[in-house]
Design a protein that fits this description.
Order of helices and strands: HEEEHHEEE
Radius of gyration: 16 Å
Structural class: alpha+beta
Strand order of the largest sheet: 1-2-3
Number of strands: 6
Mean pLDDT: 87
Helix content: 10-25%
Number of helices: 3
Distance between the termini: 48 Å
Strand content: 15-25%
Length: 141
């Protein structure tokens, strides 16, 4: 690739990364929560600490943030906040700052092994992990 081609490729990559995010008005953001007007789901804005699967479920169930009622999201719910126009992390950075480029737990079991489906916010892909793995959590209600 020529120097001009490299500059053009870099400029295009930065342009895609510079303007990721949901359509205006999709997310109603507070300091602690994000309401998704498209799905009606309210998300914990910050990433929680790293937990194994059982502790992730317990953490969400016990979360008292903004009145409680939290749970671990299903894999389909977690996929709704993936921003396909963003990379590392593949999420709206204004609504969900400091999202880690790691898999996040879902409540959806992975059968036949003792695991669960997760969404990796590096690229937004779905993958499975053992329930003993320790990963970040973002709760929903």
């Amino acid at each position: 690739m020529t120097a001009g081609g490299i500059v053009l490729a870099l400029a295009l990559a930065l342009a895609v990364r510079a303007d990721p995010g949901a359509p205006p008005g999709r997310y109603q953001v507070t300091a602690e929560t994000v309401l998704d007007s498209r799905t009606g789901l309210t998300w914990q804005r910050a990433s929680a600490a790293h937990y194994d699967f059982a502790d992730a479920k317990s953490y969400c169930a016990g979360l008292t943030l903004a009145g409680g009622g939290w749970r671990l999201p299903t894999v389909r719910e977690l996929q709704t906040i993936v921003d396909e126009g963003a990379y590392a992390p593949a999420i709206d950075g204004a609504a969900f700052p400091q999202t880690l480029t790691l898999p996040y737990w879902s409540a959806t079991p992975y059968v036949p092994v003792r695991g669960a489906w997760m969404v990796d916010f590096t690229e937004g892909r779905v993958e499975d992990h053992e329930v003993s793995d320790v990963m970040p959590v973002r709760c929903v209600r």
